[in-house]
Amino acid sequence: MSSHDSLDARLTELTGQLDQKDTELDQEVDDIVQADLDALDRALDEEDKDLREGLRKRVEAVKKGIKDRKDDLRQKVEAAKKAPKERASKEAEQALNRMQEDLSNEDLESAHIHRWVANQWLKASK
Question: 67-72 — which CB contacts under 8 Å span 24+ positions?
């Protein structure tokens, strides 16, 4: 066998070894990437769950805040119904002014409350 043939055979053998090592390394990299992606998916799922829970709590807090404010205001309105109708009209106008200010400030929660207050005062002023 000539020197050239021997070198060519060696090149073929080493190329096979190199290809095998590349395949093994590719598999290791794929395994690592997959493990990292799985961990990332779990972390994102947990974060998504936490975000949903946080939003649910926030919505519940806003609902409770609205209910509490309405209850308090309902009591005040009931007491005010006994006052002269002129006062009720004035209170309605003030509530509408606050509602307009709330809308300008994009405070929708307060705007809803002030709308409700204005409606109650308008009913009382009839």
Answer: 69/113, 70/113, 70/116
DSSP-derived letter for residue 57 is: H
**Dihedral sign, CA of 19, 25, 28, 33?**
negative
The residue count of the chain comes to 126
Q: Which domain holds residue 25?
A: 3-124
Sequence-distant (6+) residues with CB within 8 A of 70 are 113, 116
> 């590349």: which residue's tokens?
22
The position carrying tokens 């096979």 is 16
pLDDT tens, position by position, for the chain (126 residues)? 678 788 888 889 989 999 999 999 999 999 999 999 999 999 999 998 989 999 999 999 999 999 999 999 888 888 766 667 777 788 889 999 999 998 999 888 998 999 999 988 888 777
Is-contact 55 62, C-beta < 8 A?
no
Provide the whole-model pTM: 0.42
Give the count of domains, the chain: 1
CA distance 107 to 103: 6
